[in-house]
Specification:
Elements (H helix, E strand, L loop, with lengths): L1 H8 L3 E3 L4 E3 L2 E5 L6 H11 L10 H14 L4 E5 L9 H18 L2 E4 L4 H6 L3 H6 L12 H13 L10 H13 L11
Parallel strand pairs: 3-4, 4-5
Antiparallel strand pairs: 1-2
Helix pairs in contact: 2-3
InterPro entries: P-loop_NTPase, TniB
Protein name: TniB protein
Length: 190
């Protein structure tokens, strides 16, 4: 949600003279496991440059880097980075090295989002971990701001159609979810 909001504040802009789209911020989701090929395919799909068929990681990398350079990318935002933990130690290391490579090669800021376990995933690469600051979203208090959030979620999920008997359960459940420290997100700086 934060990544999408940030990206919407800095949308892609098409330059007719150059015939190119400039995209300052690119939000992508980490694949379910640390897989370089799938990650590059996610990037290419997000920017509308799909590559069909089987391709070597090096081919996907070259194509993704070429497009991202042409787009004048400044920030790569990766959500669900804790998915790295689904792979072996070696797969995690390769994926983290790839992220560091992308940040270096493109001269972009790297922002990653995830639950507390995301810190464990990122700390697997000392060089990458040193470049990132940890930021936590605060725990919600049962106040007006929290009530507005719940009302927004209810409206977005069409929960207003629930019977009146469900309201206390919805509020209790949401309150429990938003107070759980294991569901806080960290946002390292780029």
């Amino acid at each position: 949600m934060i990544a999408k909001r940030m990206a919407s504040k800095y949308p892609a802009q098409y330059n007719a003279e150059l015939g190119a789209t400039k995209t300052p911020i690119l939000p992508v989701q980490a694949p379910p496991a640390p897989d370089e090929s799938r990650f590059y395919q996610h990037i290419l799909a997000t920017i509308g440059a799909l590559m069909w068929g089987r391709h070597a990681v090096s081919e996907l990398e070259v194509r993704a880097l070429s497009h991202l350079r042409d787009m004048d990318l400044r920030m790569l935002m990766i959500d669900e980075v804790h998915n790295l933990l689904a792979g072996s130690y070696r797969e995690q290391r390769r994926f983290l090295i790839m992220l560091r490579f992308l940040a270096n090669d493109l001269c972009v800021s790297l922002v990653v989002f995830g639950v507390n376990e995301a810190l464990d995933a990122v700390r697997g690469d000392d060089h990458l971990a040193r470049r990132l600051d940890e930021h936590y979203l605060p725990l919600w208090e049962d106040d007006v701001e929290f009530s507005r959030l719940i009302q927004t979620l209810i409206a977005a999920m069409a929960l207003e159609r629930l019977c009146q008997f469900a309201w206390p359960w919805v509020l209790r459940s949401a309150n429990t979810v938003f107070r759980r420290p294991d569901l806080r997100r960290s946002r390292p700086k780029g």
